[in-house]
């Protein structure tokens, strides 16, 4: 059977009434959360992990994917009307979108963002459906060496891509890898780092860690900030519909943003923010109205928003085919798969084709739902922006605690929730990224298992890791991903120092 046949079967699965309900819940929650400033899809998926513990696996994953897409949609509302990007991928949208809102063109800005996201999401999801089987065929020839090298690449690129400092990213990663060692050794059956505590023999629950780091840590961080001024919400004036000229200036940026965003989202060192920046720069260079950029150019909203949503679909390519998360939300979704005993990767397509193709097909349905939800309900999303911050974050803290108790009713687990929440607050305070820690905790045991299998096969010969051309190439790419940014940063600092010395002379 070809990808098209599988996709049709997936659509039949995704069109079941309960699956449609899960998708609707996901996109509605995702949009609402994306609209709220400072709360991203990663936090929402983390909060819902314990809640969905006893639900149907396919329905829960469809809900998570809907939240991911909805969060990408909703972030544009905050950026345009509040000039407050909920996450880094929405920074560019705020540049032009808020200027349009101040000129009374908030409606067309929101419309081009919503329609562009729909177009990009539709094309990128179809690309995911037809690209995934090809990557799965390549991944099926991977052995322990190749998988270990692939995970090293994921560790390095995630650590280098998140945050301003590669060293801080690696520090966060190694904390996650250390926590992943707690519990029973998978090969020998010996207890490691449990310190005689029975609750630690099963290891650290990824669900508890994710909720603590993303939800509790964020709440503590926001509560610790003081002196924040009131943010002004720009009113949506006039019609939300686009004029004929707006359509003419938007459709090409939508397509270009899709082409730019999807492959960048699919790369291990990708990330939606890179695609949005590239899309903005491209539109500025190709625009017939370059003087409008910085003053409210509609192309500066259409292109980056399309790139943003295309990268979200691109992120699912390495997650579903190789089991590699390239964003914080993808890392939490990986934890969602694992809580149902599923491991994303090439075998997922062979062992659970109904689930994985139903998930991919549900993204097409979710896209249509989001377009229907976003345009008529803009007034409702704007009202969400007026919720007082103390009420909002107090509710998140309560929901996180109740969800953890529901999934694992243990006093010790609540203590871990608080401890890791404080750790998340301290890491945010000092600029350490959260995502590498969670990725280290999730992928650490798998990387260790593949490494030990490779060494067992080669009878302890470490050179076996570079004797495979594929593994050697992946390790070389990982090394370059770590070293090149450091060299570029050092050269940049050197040029700055040289310029300062020249100015003094």
The DSSP helix count reads 21
Number of DSSP E strands: 2
Alpha carbon gyration radius: 23 Å
Question: Which runs of at least 5 residues are low in confidence (pLDDT < 50)?
Answer: none
The computed structural class is: mainly alpha
What is the H/E string? Answer: HHHHHHHHEEHHHHHHHHHHHHH
Strand content: under 5%
**Major beta-sheet overview:** 2 strands, antiparallel
How far the N terminus sits from the C terminus, by CA atoms, comes to: 72 Å
Mean pLDDT value: 80
Order of the strands making up the biggest sheet: 1-2
Gross morphology: globular
**Residues in helices, as a percent range:** over 70%
Organism: Paracoccus fistulariae
InterPro entries: DUF112_TM (IPR002823)
Domain DUF112: 20-438
Keywords: Membrane, Transmembrane, Transmembrane helix
Structure description:
Residues 20-438 form the DUF112 domain. Keywords: Membrane, Transmembrane, Transmembrane helix. The chain crosses the membrane at residues 20-49, 109-135, 147-163, 170-188, 200-223, 316-335, 355-378, 390-409, 429-447, 468-488. This is Tripartite tricarboxylate transporter permease. It contains 21 helices and two strands. With 505 residues, it is mostly helical. It has a two-stranded antiparallel sheet with strand order 1-2. Strand 1 (183-184) and strand 2 form a beta hairpin. Helix 6 packs parallel to helix 12.
